[in-house]
Amino acid sequence: MSNDSLPRRGLMLVLSSPSGAGKTTISRALLDDDDRLELSVSATTRAPREGEIDGVHYHFISGARFQALIAEDGLLEWANVFNNAYGTPRAAIETALSEGRDVLFDIDWQGTQQLRQKMPQDLVSVFVLPPSLAALETRLKSRQQKTGETDEQVAYRLSKAPAEVSHWAEYDFIIVNSDIEESVAQVRAILTAERLRRERLRGIEGIVSDIRSIET
Ligand code: 5GP
């Protein structure tokens, strides 16, 4: 039996960063070549951006529906970010973890704190830092052409970076994203190691008792 096929509980891999630090690019690269990793599709009250598909990038829902989800305990965590509500639907995550599938979360520090409180054993948290403030500003501005955001929206995102970054020390791992390929390789290494944690593995006792059966 290879390490990859050991039965185990899935894990929750959280990536947080200030907007523009490269977290989404890292997430896409991880998801593209790892079929045991899936993205947690959040619910949000914000309007879809060009190219975003309902049910794929987000579940785009009304404020009233969001409140109803909170009331019925349907969200594992939720927070207000950039004046909109964002949250993680509970059922999909619980099923994935119990079936041994790993889930990638692109959520902010507030959501990560809630997951850490509720499910510390399942959580692996990674904070992605840009190499400098200047690099962050450059990335946000170059992305502006693609997203069609206004100068004010970009300035607002940048102004929120200090608050997000102030939570870096609450995370298990820190990645300084100066080179995207290197950062992706680093997160893959974290994932590989975390998948082998003793606490997540199931059925190891079988292998061990098999070997110990010749004990005299
Ligand atoms: P965007 O509007 O750019 O897609 O996301 C804005 C911010 O909301 C990002 O920092 C992202 O990590 C955060 N976010 C997205 N989904 C969730 C969620 O389900 N929960 C929390 N707490 N934050 C989220």
Care to describe what's here?
There is one protein chain. The chain is of the alpha/beta class. Helices cover 43% and strands 19% of the residues. The chain has one domain (3-40, 100-215): Rossmann fold. The chain is built from 9 helices and 9 strands. A 5-stranded parallel beta sheet has the order 2-7-1-8-9, sandwiched between helices. A 4-stranded mixed beta sheet has the order 4-3-6-5. Strand 5 and strand 6 (84-89) form a beta hairpin. The chain is globular, with a radius of gyration of 19 Å. The chain starts with 11 loop residues before the first strand and ends with a helix. Guanosine-5'-monophosphate (5GP) is lined by residues 19, 42, 46, 77, 79, 81-82, 86-88, 106-108, 110-111. Guanosine-5'-monophosphate is lined by residues 19, 42, 46, 77, 79, 81-82, 86-88, 106-108, 110-111.
Care to count the β-strands? 9
Which hetero compounds are present in the coordinates? guanosine-5'-monophosphate
Q: What is the assigned CATH homologous superfamily? A: P-loop containing nucleotide triphosphate hydrolases
CATH C-level class is: Alpha Beta
**Uncertain runs:** none
Radius of gyration: 19 Å
Order of helices and strands: EHEEEHEEHEHEHHHEHH
User: What structural class is derived from the secondary structure elements?
Assistant: alpha/beta
Average residue-wise pLDDT: 94
Lateral arrangement of strands in the main beta sheet = 2-7-1-8-9
The tally of domains stands at 1
CATH topology grouping: Rossmann fold
